[in-house]
Design brief:
14% of the residues lie in helices and 34% in strands. With 98 residues, the chain is of the alpha+beta class. The longest helix is centred in the middle third of the chain and has 9 residues. The radius of gyration is 15 Å and the shape is globular. The relative contact order is 0.23. It binds zinc ion.
């Protein structure tokens, strides 16, 4: 079980949330100018990080807000939570490597 700290509601069970994939994916400014390969890369190619990963979560059974989470993909430890539009928090070296 994952306990996710929603920035608005506090700690809630993971079943209240919907996973939104990798965070900080910028939509191309001129999608019509991209080749099919570039468009496909934007839509489908994501990093597969073993370690600290920035991901989006949606509190679908709560405040219905999107936010970002820094989670370690092996231990599932949540290292930071921050709102959309906020910069990714810098972690201490020990947190980033654990
Ligand atoms: Zn919430």
């Amino acid at each position: 079980m994952l306990l996710i700290p929603c920035p608005w509601c506090g700690d809630r069970h993971e079943t209240e949330f919907r996973y939104g994939g990798e965070a900080h994916i910028a939509r191309p400014e001129k999608p019509a100018d991209l080749s099919d390969t570039e468009w496909g890369d934007f839509l489908f190619m994501r990093t597969n990080t073993k370690g600290v990963f920035a991901e989006r979560w949606y509190h679908s059974h709560g405040c219905r807000q999107w936010f970002n989470v820094l989670r370690h993909t092996v231990s599932h430890e949540i290292l930071a939570v921050y709102k959309m539009g906020e910069k990714r928090p810098q972690l201490k070296k020990t947190e980033a490597n654990s």
